[in-house]
């Protein structure tokens, strides 16, 4: 899934704003630091998409008789390797 | 012997050199065929009465209009389904196992035989053939390792849950917050915020679609491209409402 940088910042602000309203939650650092941590975590996870894409393409290139890119067989195999990489990362 | 000479005669009379090229393996390794349901047609296409259309190649049917290309293609499909009654079920099972469960194919009576002998029942196109070496086939795990989602929405929900779990875990591990209740509750709150915000774009798309439905004639009259109009309207609404997509 692709989410823009602006969107990530926006979502992290929304989360922090929600935290500020809650009595059951207390924070040990500045709210902006908390927001930055959320942004960082989200960015790291979302960057996995690109890494999974690179890995899936790398594996596909190692096949001698790999189907042509764009064919249904290519899509199935690409998705398989993509998902395998994501699973390895716990996603 | 008589059959063989009949096949040769058929090929000769039709001047179809491709049939002998297929049967001789000149066009690449091919020992599985889709039976067309007609012995003569099989012979003309593949050089064998029990052959047909090569199952691991793309076959293009060309001809003038109304000569029966669609009828011909549908007949092949019908014949395939008639002779492989469980093929759709097997393909679904194979799909679910991410093409990893070979037993779905190998245990079936209608799969192609491993010696490469052509048979009228050699009709199932094995997707595992696309794997380059037998080594890969042997390494295939029986346990599916990939998560399968029925819909895109399921995948999205799973992704949101994972994302919120990671955020909560990171904040707790780094000791940034004090949360008195269960982590599940905090994860649900965060997942809710993310999902709600990401839904804005889906809702906006629906809104633009509805708006344009009533104006179809207008932009068609102005020869405008639907996709472009869609993007223009969407961008305008985003600007007006100060949304972040």
What does this structure look like?
The complex is a heterodimer of chains A (91) and B (245). Helices cover 73% and strands 3% of the residues of chain A. Chain A is mainly α. In chain A, helix 1 runs antiparallel to helix 2 and helix 2 packs across helix 3. Chain A is elongated. Chain B is an all-alpha fold. Helix content of chain B is 56%, strand content 3%. Chain B is built from eleven helices and three strands; from the N terminus they run ααβαβαααααβααα. Chain B has a two-stranded antiparallel ribbon. In chain B, helix 8 runs antiparallel to helix 9. The radius of gyration of chain B is 28 Å and the shape is elongated. Strand 1 of chain A pairs antiparallel with strand 3 of chain B, so a sheet runs across the interface.
Notable traits:
A: 91 residues; mainly alpha; 3 helices; 73% helix; B: 245 residues; elongated
């Amino acid at each position: 899934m692709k989410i823009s940088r602006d969107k990530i910042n926006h979502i992290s602000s929304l989360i922090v704003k929600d935290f500020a309203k809650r009595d059951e939650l207390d924070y040990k650092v500045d709210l902006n630091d908390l927001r930055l941590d959320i942004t960082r975590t989200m960015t790291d996870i979302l960057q996995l998409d690109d890494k999974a894409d690179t890995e899936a393409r790398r594996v596909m290139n190692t096949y001698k008789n790999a189907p042509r890119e764009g064919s249904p067989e290519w899509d199935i195999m690409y998705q398989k390797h993509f998902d395998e990489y994501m699973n390895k990362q716990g996603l | 012997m008589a059959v063989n000479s009949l096949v040769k005669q058929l090929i000769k009379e039709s001047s179809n050199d491709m049939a002998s090229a297929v049967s001789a393996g000149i066009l690449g390794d091919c020992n599985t065929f889709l039976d067309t349901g007609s012995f003569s047609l099989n012979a003309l296409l593949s050089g064998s009465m029990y052959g047909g259309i090569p199952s691991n190649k793309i076959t293009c049917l060309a001809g003038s209009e109304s000569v029966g290309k669609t009828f011909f293609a549908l007949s092949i499909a019908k014949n395939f389904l008639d002779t492989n009654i469980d093929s759709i079920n097997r393909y679904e099972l194979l799909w679910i196992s991410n093409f990893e469960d070979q037993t779905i194919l190998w245990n079936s009576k209608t799969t192609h035989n491993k010696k490469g002998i052509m048979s009228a029942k050699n009709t199932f196109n094995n997707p595992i053939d696309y794997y380059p070496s037998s080594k890969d086939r042997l390494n295939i795990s029986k346990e599916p390792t990939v998560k399968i989602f029925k819909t895109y929405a399921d995948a999205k929900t799973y992704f949101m849950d994972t994302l919120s779990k990671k955020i909560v875990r990171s904040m707790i591990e780094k000791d940034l917050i004090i949360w008195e209740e269960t982590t599940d509750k905090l994860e649900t709150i965060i997942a809710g915020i993310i999902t709600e915000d990401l839904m804005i774009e889906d809702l906006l798309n629906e809104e633009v679609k509805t708006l344009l439905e009533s104006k179809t004639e207008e932009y068609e009259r102005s020869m405008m491209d639907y996709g472009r109009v869609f993007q223009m309207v969407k961008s305008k609404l985003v600007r007006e409402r100060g949304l972040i997509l």
